[in-house]
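To: structure subgroup
Subject: Chain for Friday's discussion

All,

I'm putting the inputs and outputs inline so they're searchable in the archive.
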Amino acid sequence: MFTKILVPTDGSDMALHAAKVARAVAEKFGGDVTIVHIVQNYYALPAFSMPDTVAIPLSVMQDLETTGKSILAKTEQIFAGFEGKVTSRLEYGPPGKQLVDMVVDEGYSLVVMGRRGLSGVTGLLLGSVSNHLVHYAPCPVLIIKGTEPVD
């Protein structure tokens, strides 16, 4: 049923908790897991870009990549000893769109993610990325709220 599971992570407690739930689901259904961290990049701007666009300096992007790799490594620890296949990926682009594209292009059967991550916007009931996935992903999206223990 859930043989190919996508686990977006931003390193937040909710994202790490969602990864624990994803592991439990993958173990139950014999699924493979892809952990992904999206670096929102604006530095690869074409020469004809609009004057109001913002380019992030290369050094900042390198820091974001280093942080992303660290977040992936932290999330991978949750899958230590997991008998299925676990893959980690660092991707670039607008997170919501990038994740939906991955689901569509690569045929994921389930997305497991935290309700809200490290966004500074606290007034939203559902994070903007998880909200985007709920509306546009063609597969089930399991939104994990809180950080309760996983049984």
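Points worth raising on Friday:
The longest strand covers residues 32-39.
Residues 43-48, 120-126 have pLDDT under 50 and may be disordered.

D.
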